[in-house]
């Protein structure tokens, strides 16, 4: 595994539940999870081969770093990347034509509640994709998508998504504090409300989101007043469209 920072580390802690042995190359890491081997420099393992090379470094570093790993892939091995944007064709080319699988995870994988999308190039269909899907299944919900472009769309919706949620929650908490609650109280009220509302929406057979919203909203009541201020003029709807488009456009730039 090349790089083991925030996202790679979150995944690795759950990937370790399987039967694979992991070697992590990361100059910044103090320790790897129990059972994983950590090396700080690729030269320490230069003569070894691996069934999978996992790319968990920043997309901007891939062109410089990945070619050094091409000779380390075993004959039937494949390259698995979690990097935003970087295309299957680029990954395969940098790895000497190896089968390639792209995964777009998200950070709640850290608590086993990630959602991820996967896709593979032609050579990566079959055992490579099946193996990657099994690995991602250990981290939450994994969905194989039918085109590579959809991975960039998964990135915009789910990969970056926790960032949007944390920002919305942050603003919600700040507003609650301005209403007189201390930070602990505001976090408990806001995060508990988000958790509870999400759990209701995820119940099997739950009503649609519009119906759920309406079930909170008494005519002429407090929620109606709040919702009118929140999205009465469509600001939130427009902002969400702009948010996803901006993230998708950036993924396309990183291809
Ligand atoms: N964070 C997220 O929520 C998500 C991230 N991703 C993708 O995951 C990838 C990693 O992102 P993230 O975990 O956030 O980033 P981090 O910066 O936390 O992790 C990258 C790690 O790679 C290390 N590194 C730098 N150079 C090398 C090298 N030559 N060899 C091995 N390791 C090296 C970095 O060390 P140092 O800090 O010293 O540079 C760092 O520990 C990105 O491609 C991103 O697109 C995908 C989905 C979600
Ligand atoms: O911000 C990023 O580029 C990465 C990819 C998705 C989430 N974090």
From TrEMBL:
Belongs to the pyrroline-5-carboxylate reductase family. Signal peptide: none annotated. It comes from Qipengyuania profundimaris. Pfam families: F420_oxidored, P5CR_dimer. Residues 148-254 form the Pyrroline-5-carboxylate reductase dimerisation domain. Keywords: Amino-acid biosynthesis, Cytoplasm, NADP, Oxidoreductase, Proline biosynthesis. This is Pyrroline-5-carboxylate reductase. Catalyzes the reduction of 1-pyrroline-5-carboxylate (PCA) to L-proline. SUPFAM superfamilies: 6-phosphogluconate dehydrogenase C-terminal domain-like (SSF48179), NAD(P)-binding Rossmann-fold domains (SSF51735). The keyword Ribonucleoprotein does not apply. It comes from the Bacteria. Its main location: cytoplasm. GO terms for molecular function: pyrroline-5-carboxylate reductase activity. It is an enzyme of class 1 (oxidoreductase). Its EC number is 1.5.1.2. It is found in: Cytoplasm. It catalyses: L-proline + NADP(+) = (S)-1-pyrroline-5-carboxylate + NADPH + 2 H(+); L-proline + NAD(+) = (S)-1-pyrroline-5-carboxylate + NADH + 2 H(+). PANTHER family: PYRROLINE-5-CARBOXYLATE REDUCTASE (PTHR11645), PYRROLINE-5-CARBOXYLATE REDUCTASE 3 (PTHR11645:SF0).
């Amino acid at each position: 595994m090349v790089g083991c920072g925030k996202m790679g580390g979150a995944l690795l802690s759950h990937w370790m539940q399987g039967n694979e042995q992991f070697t992590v190359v990361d100059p910044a890491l103090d320790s790897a999870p129990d059972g994983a081997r950590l090396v700080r420099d690729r030269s320490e393992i230069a003569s070894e081969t691996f069934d999978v090379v996992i790319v968990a470094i920043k997309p901007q570093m891939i062109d410089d770093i990945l070619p050094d790993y091409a000779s380390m892939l075993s004959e039937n091995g494949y390259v698995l990347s979690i990097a935003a944007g970087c295309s299957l064709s680029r990954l395969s080319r940098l790895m000497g034509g190896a089968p390639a699988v792209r995964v777009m995870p998200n950070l709640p994988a850290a608590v086993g509640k990630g959602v991820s999308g996967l896709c593979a190039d032609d050579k990566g269909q079959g055992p490579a994709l099946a193996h990657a899907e099994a690995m991602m299944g250990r981290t939450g919900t994994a969905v194989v998508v039918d085109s590579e472009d959809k991975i960039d769309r998964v990135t915009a919706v789910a990969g970056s998504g926790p960032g949007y949620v944390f920002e919305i929650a942050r603003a919600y908490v700040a507003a609650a504090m301005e209403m007189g609650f201390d930070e602990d109280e505001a976090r408990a009220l806001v995060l508990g409300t988000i958790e509870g509302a999400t759990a209701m929406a995820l119940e099997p057979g739950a009503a649609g989101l519009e119906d759920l919203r309406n079930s909170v909203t008494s005519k002429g009541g407090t929620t109606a007043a709040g919702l009118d201020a929140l999205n009465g003029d469509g600001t939130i709807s427009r902002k969400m469209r702009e948010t996803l488009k901006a993230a998708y456009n950036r993924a396309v730039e990183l291809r």
